[in-house]
Design brief:
- Strands 15-16-17-14-13-19-20 form a 7-stranded mixed sheet, with helices on both faces.
- It is about 40% helix and about 20% strand.
- The chain has about 500 residues and is α/β, with parallel strands linked by helices.
- Strand 8 (about 150-155), helix 6 and strand 9 (about 180) form a beta-alpha-beta unit.
- Helix 1 packs parallel to helix 8, helix 3 runs antiparallel to helix 6 (about 160-175) and helix 4 (about 90-100) crosses helix 5 (about 105-125).
- It folds into 2 domains: about 10-260 and about 460-480, Aldehyde Dehydrogenase, Chain A, domain 1 (3-Layer(aba) Sandwich); about 265-445, Aldehyde Dehydrogenase, Chain A, domain 2, CATH 3.40.309.
- Bound molecules: 1,4-dihydronicotinamide adenine dinucleotide and magnesium ion.
- Magnesium ion binds near residues 236 and 239.
């Protein structure tokens, strides 16, 4: 295994009003490579005061100057230029993303491709935002104007760092908003490299600002700030609830994508090979650090034992390795904190259920936050490992008797982000589609996500939708305009 030359440890600042600036306190925090546990960058930690500067810059850019005067066509062109920059720099960005998150380089390349596609999509959508004309019963014209919601605070998780930033920035720019983006403190690097291009593509200073730091300081300051009109958040349900409470004080619009405990349901009549693969892919892709991970694998009793055996056999051969190796299928978890969280759930799982494979640290690695792909079976749906989001490569396999039983177990969760069903019976497939309470249901697949289609949760997986026209809606206000066409006085007084 050849290890590529180590890049120099860079220092990054905050990007505020078109300038790279240190934190007002001078504080920085280290960013790690989770496969080596070495520091790969130091990043300025924004204080509440720095967040205030960023919000004021965004506010000023939104309220006056060149940005409010841009046309929808202008904004579309800016988004296409950003997409082009990303495509040109895809190898560099993918490598940086892989290094910083621990995800396999091949997956990081897909992610960065999706980032570019996201900017292209919203580049095309920017000038297709239409208002309506309403048939009010008066000699008048009543119509709507669609206007940007204002300054958006965007709080990003560490599992798909630049992609989650793109899902929020691209529609916001298309709408004409100004943004303050706060990347996850574990993985800010690709967003910071991206910020280098903002000026060059023609975004006026202050339209997009990037502040770094912890959720508790930088994130919380953004949510509480009266100059912010909307918060878009992807992350844990715990923090989602904190955000809603804090945002209530200034009645901000809030959209939340909070992950889940998604059911992946297998009937005996499913295509066998595709099903076994789909069960593994659904839960182990990106080390299981996926909001829509199919972490509850529901299997019809008729095939249950054979299915657990087949999954286990394949899982034992998943290639763990250095993130930058092209044949790596699973890298380390993102951080020590996540490693501790996931391994502690593995200990809980060993007590709550039977272990088919895995259950701890991947011992072949001397350093790095590597854990084994883990399958627990005979899991009761009331077990903690079946109810709580683990966000690592931990599958819980649950048997079910029949269709009604499957639906009951699938929906017995506080979450509702995603679900999947595997069967060749279209009647059964669509009955399940209609019965499952979640924002996306896959039939005979799990995980494909495209920018054209909506993404978001039911229940405690959050509210609001990203991607497609739905994602743009979340950055728009609706203004009604009433134009009287009748010149005769009202005659009321
Ligand atoms: P987190 O929810 O704490 O962090 C996500 C983002 O929110 C980060 O940018 C963080 O700095 C920010 N944040 C944290 N506290 C905040 C606060 N009080 N106010 C404003 N922003 C705040 O997630 P964490 O701690 O990294 O991971 C914990 C668990 O969250 C994971 O095990 C997983 O279950 C879940 N998670 C879900 C994600 C999803 O895609 N839905 C992504 C990341 C984590
Ligand atoms: Mg946290």
């Amino acid at each position: 295994m050849s290890s590529p030359a180590k890049p120099a440890v860079k220092t990054y600042q905050n990007y505020i009003n078109g300038q790279w600036v240190s934190s007002s306190t001078g504080e920085t925090f280290p960013v790690f490579d989770p496969s080596t546990e070495e520091v790969i960058a130091n990043v300025a930690a924004a204080s509440a005061g720095d967040v205030d500067k960023a919000v004021k810059a965004a506010r000023a850019a939104f309220d006056s100057g060149p940005w409010p005067a841009t046309t929808a066509q202008d904004r579309g062109r800016i988004l296409f230029k950003l997409a082009e920059k990303i495509r040109q720099n895809q190898p560099i960005l993918a490598e940086l993303e892989s290094r910083n998150t621990g995800k396999p380089i091949v997956e990081a390349e897909y992610d960065i491709g999706d980032v570019a596609t996201c900017f292209e999509y919203y580049g095309g959508l920017a000038n297709k935002v239409n208002g309506s004309v309403m048939p009010v019963p008066a000699n008048a014209l009543s119509f709507t104007l669609r206007e940007p919601v204002g300054v958006a605070g965007q709080i990003i998780p560490w599992n798909y760092p630049l992609l989650m930033a793109a899902w929020k920035l691209a529609p916001a720019i298309a709408a004409g908003c100004a943004c303050v983006l706060k990347p996850a403190e574990q993985t800010p690097l690709t967003a910071l490299e991206f910020a280098n291009w903002l000026e060059e593509v023609g975004l006026p200073p202050g339209v997009v600002n990037v502040v770094n730091g912890t959720g508790e300081i930088a994130g919380a300051a953004l949510v509480a700030h009266p100059g912010v009109d909307k918060i878009a958040f992807t992350g844990s349900a715990v923090v989602g609830k904190i955000i809603v409470k804090s945002a209530a004080d200034t009645l901000k619009r809030v959209t939340l994508e909070l992950g889940g405990k998604s059911p992946n349901v297998f009937f005996a009549d499913a295509d066998w090979e595709a099903a076994v693969d789909g069960a593994l892919f659904g839960v182990f892709i990106n080390q299981g650090e996926v909001c829509s991970a199919g972490s509850r694998i529901l299997v019809e009793k008729k095939i249950y034992s054979k299915f657990v055996d087949a999954m286990t056999e394949k899982a034992k051969h998943i290639k763990l390795g250095a993130p930058l190796d092209r044949d790596t299928k699973m890298g380390p978890l993102v951080s020590r904190e996540q490693y501790d969280r996931v391994t502690s759930y593995m200990e809980i799982g060993k007590k709550e259920a039977k272990t088919a494979t895995g259950g701890g640290r991947a011992k072949a690695f001397g350093k790095g936050f590597y854990v084994e792909p883990t399958i627990f079976y005979d899991v009761d749906n009331t077990a903690r490992i079946a109810r709580e989001e683990i966000f690592g490569p931990v599958a819980t396999v649950i048997p079910f008797e029949n269709e009604a039983d499957a639906i009951k177990i699938a929906n017995d969760t506080p979450y509702g982000l995603a679900g999947a069903v595997w069967t060749r019976d279209i009647f059964k497939a669509f009955r399940i589609v209609k019965s499952m309470r979640a924002g996306i249901i896959w039939v005979n697949h799990m995980q494909p996500t495209y920018v054209e289609a909506p993404w978001g949760g039911y229940k405690q997986s959050g509210f609001g939708r990203e991607l497609g026209p739905w994602g743009l809606e979340e950055y728009l206000e609706t203004k009604q305009v009433y134009v009287n066409l009748d010149e005769t006085p009202i005659g009321w007084y």
